[in-house]
Amino acid sequence: MLFAIRPHLQQSKVFDGLNRFLRETMLATLEGRQVDETNLPAGLCAAVAGNPPTCAAIDALLAQLSALHQRQKQTLKDALALNTEPCTFLADRTKPLPVIPDSVFPALKILAVHLFERTAKLKGVEQACGECIDDHYARFRHGNAPGNGNVCCVCGTEYLAQVRADENDNEQWRGPYDHLLAKDVYPLYGVDPKNLLPICNTCNSKAKLAKDLVLKDGVRRLSFSPWTERASFQEIEVVVDDANDLFPRVVVNFRSADPDRQEKLATWDDVYQIKSRVEGEFRELGAKMAEDARAPDDASFLEKLRDAGLAKAQAQRLTTFNYWRARVYAAVSGMNPRSRAALRQATTPTPQ
Fold first, then answer.
1. CA-based nearest residue to 159, from 172, 169, 150, 171
2. By mean pLDDT, which of 51-55, 63-67, 171-175 is the weakest?
3. Of the residues 57, 97, 187, 327, which has the fewest C-beta atoms closer than 10 A?
């Protein structure tokens, strides 16, 4: 996790309402009672009941829950009553994951996916919850706190989504919500707002894919809890290596003296492919340097690197790769003078 999520950001009212609805519906069935709407958004149950596909998915789940043995019902009730936040499992490998009975899992998965992809967009659900998903997305990527800007907090290399002129914030395009605990594997958290993080398309659909933040090869591992944790500046090392290649190359390393932190860094990189993406971006280092720091001599070069690095660091949530450019410029400034001079000369455009 590259950028800290700013505090006091209100979660999605739609996902929060549907998450409470799902848990209350399951509990009511397991306890043999009617759904208690006291803690649900007014009108949400009616909105859900008015949508036949959602009702069909709910009925299929309730049938499987009702058929459980009493001991299985009690175990599932206890798990629901705990209402453990999903990120707890990322930060604590000893925390047992909720066990969903095999007979219930397929129906719960179908319903969770349906709630997330379909039910959440129903007009009646939006009216009952008081907003649509786009409203939350606009809050999240707003430039001012508690918004987090339009640059992906996970990688800093891509926008959450392109912004169009003359469009309201809640009518802009939006990128994906990442299920920190994948909804296909952990369907109990399929619409939990704390499990849903806006990230860029590359992180979600190219890097992460079906990778699991909690398990790797069946073994529990630690991961950053994005709502409360991030990689520190000191844990991210960016250097320019000119020892083995014909041309200097940017190298990114993640290091921490704390074994748990080191494991979280490794998980972050394994799932979202941070190192390879950043090193790939700066493979043409001379061309990248020429964009911001073309200079006739070393003194001017260092001054431009310093000024550009400061400007990029201050705007790291505003423009993609600004964080990484600032780190690369600092690394170039720290090179030995001879290697830095060769790199500076490479920023001079080739005559056509």
1. 150
2. 171-175
3. 97
pLDDT band at 252 (very low <50, low <70, confident <90, very high): very high
Instruction: Report which of 37, 15, 14, 13 is spatially closest to residue 25, judged by C-alpha positions.
Output: 37
Q: Residue 32, Cβ neighbours under 10 Å: how many?
A: 8
- The amino acid at 108: L
Beta carbons within 8 Å of 327's beta carbon, 6+ residues apart:
236, 238
Total residues found in the chain within this entry:
352
CB within 8 A of 203, min separation 6: which ones? Answer: 152, 154, 155, 158, 178, 272
Do residues 260 and 132 touch, judged by C-beta distance below 8 A? no
- Contact (Cβ atoms closer than 8 angstroms) between residue 28 and residue 35: yes
Give the H/E segment covering residue 236. Answer: strand 236-241
